[in-house]
């Protein structure tokens, strides 16, 4: 019964919370650029407007891809909230992400094609990192279950501090924030137009935006696991992480995909090995 | 109720795409000036989008000529409805000083329906923001919203 309640909470509250976080993100970004910025509810207005626009499709594949991406993202958040398996969450998330790329590649537009290829490279960079983080959590708790994390007597951050940095790296790549906004960027650099999002429009773009909110909540939820012993600790940790993310987004320039791939995989492996050695030396 | 919410979203989130139809770049620079911290159009929810498929408002600067009228029509057709068009500057409104030239068709309204005209040579950023707000007022009336 509690599981059903948690699942409903995840389905309803997660996108609203994700929208608010995105709104605060835009406000803080504007503030860092000495602008006033849009209202906090702006992402909600954007999505409502997009839902009311005329549906325009290049081909029917794209509609399916937008739906699967949304369902994949929503389902992975539900799985996280109900304390399911970390690996299962990872696979469901990946299926959604792959469908987003397939929809982009289903159109011959060069912007969408390059955006799709770059999104695949971003997935290639963040997925090993996420797997390393999940494997380390499993080594510490002895299980891939999210619920096992909540049985720990002290926060995971004490035992896996370096894995939290690895997760932060994956977070930046997954949320397509600078310096890794390679496949699509929310800001005014328009050489790719909107990259992987270019060919989605109207209600389908709205669906992708909602799916992105689910993903924000999912990744921040995984961050919150690192302070699983207290609710206040979770909120503080997530808030600090996201604030750091916004600052990094504003002070860095975009990197090339080669640098992203090399630094993500190289740094991820080194930090994981060091963290594991430290964990076993204790 | 959902319809009301969507209408509210339409008023609060006009994304603009800017097309230079043959302008001298004077108006284009003024359009981009609206994005700077001084004017900061993002506080009204206005975003400068590079993609007509995502845009709600088409900002056109400069005269229309025989070559680029097809491009203008194509961009307009790619925008999903509801949409609005704003002609910026003397050239966009009427053809300006070039209206008599042999290759010039005239203002933007010769090719696509224009909702708001923003005069000026070049139009000031304040006038452009005012034009977008005027277009929103028009949309409000069209949607039957009173507030």
From TrEMBL, chain B:
It comes from Solidesulfovibrio magneticus str. Maddingley MBC34. Pfam families: Oxidored_q6 (PF01058). Its cofactor is [4Fe-4S] cluster. InterPro entries: Complex_I_20kDa-like (IPR052375), NADH_UbQ_OxRdtase-like_20kDa (IPR006137), NADH_UQ_OxRdtase_20Kd_su (IPR006138). Residues 24-134 form the NADH:ubiquinone oxidoreductase-like 20kDa subunit domain. One of its GO terms (molecular function) is quinone binding. This is NADH-quinone oxidoreductase, B subunit. Belongs to the complex I 20 kDa subunit family.
